[in-house]
Amino acid sequence: MGCSSCSTGKDGQPKGCKNNGTCGTDGCNKLTVFDWLSNMSLPNGSEPFNCVEVRFKNSRKEFFKNSDKISLSIGDIVVTEAKSGHDVGMVTLTGELVKVQMKKKKVGVDDEEVLKLYRKAAQKDIDTWQKCRDREEEIKKRSREMAIVLKLQMKISDVEFQGDGSKATFYYTAEDRVDFRQLIKDMGRAFSIRIEMRQIGYRQEAQRLGGIGSCGRELCCSTWLTDFRSVSTSAARYQQLSLNPQKLAGQCGKLKCCLNYELDVYLDALQDFPSQDTRIFTEKGLAFCQKIDIFKQMLWFSYKDDAANWHMLTKEQVNILISRNKKKESIASLEEYAVDNIIEDKPMVFENVVGQDSLTRFDKPKNNKRKNTKNKKRNTKRPVKNAKK
Questions:
Q1: Is the pTM of this model over 0.70?
Q2: Which among 65, 66, 159, 215 is placed 20 to 30 Å from 295, CA to CA?
Q3: What pLDDT score was predicted for residue 276?
Q4: What's the CATH fold of domain 128-205?
């Protein structure tokens, strides 16, 4: 992800704006929203919605009233009201879509939480904001050292300065409740700013820090996912996944959010599918279900006395056998219903489109000229037998 002014420079840092992914052109931001109503004009007599959505560091977004009806567009740096002082952020959404977002998040226009937007940021405001952002990494490192000295069981994951530089919010994670009163006093003396401590969960920590998932893409929580739904191990069971915590857990240490993406499709497919606890009574013996393949609509059964031999049945065949068991009709064996046309697994033949078939293609060819010359000399030295008269 990168905007037009963020060409990569030394050590992978952006070369143009040097804001590490928070540039003013809004092309490489987290949770960027596409305004699909931007090209549509409002009906006659209607005024544009007087609230805008502003994004601050990482994924924190808030709504503000545009009481002065300032002409704003996505990517503008603005100065907003804060609980004490002012803050600097970037406009991420304007117009009617802001009304939809506020309704979705149950935020009213007349709520006290919706503060006022002052003006567009001047160059002096941006410079002050940038100096504060440059101090965050150093302060985060020193605050972690202070917490270690005080032996506090907590991890300070991120630091966010207010736009005017008068306040800093420290985000931390901890298993239990932490008494950090002494830590606040020490940091207040060292940094000469007002300090706010805010505890977040492990999912919120991964959202703020970002990273690359096991799929090779950026984390969903740091790019587009805004609400965290609970993920249980039953989602993995329905999808026939092995309960391996190393594969099912994300970078936050919790179950991956993507386990819920396809869960509804699996639940719909399993509605008319026989249960895995299904038992079939036959004259040959009692049969148990060993495996289910939802996509192929196949089930594998084996007898209680012969668990090593599995018999593959289709979903329709199993439903017929279950109905016959309910009617108490006799079933000779599973072999009568088992699928006979089993395709044998053939070894896969890989085609090398590049033409690099041999692993020794870069080795020097062996010099066989000496052998050929030696063979010619031997043949010439051999005496020729006299032909029979």
A1: no
A2: 215
A3: 81
A4: GMP Synthetase; Chain A, domain 3 (3.30.300)
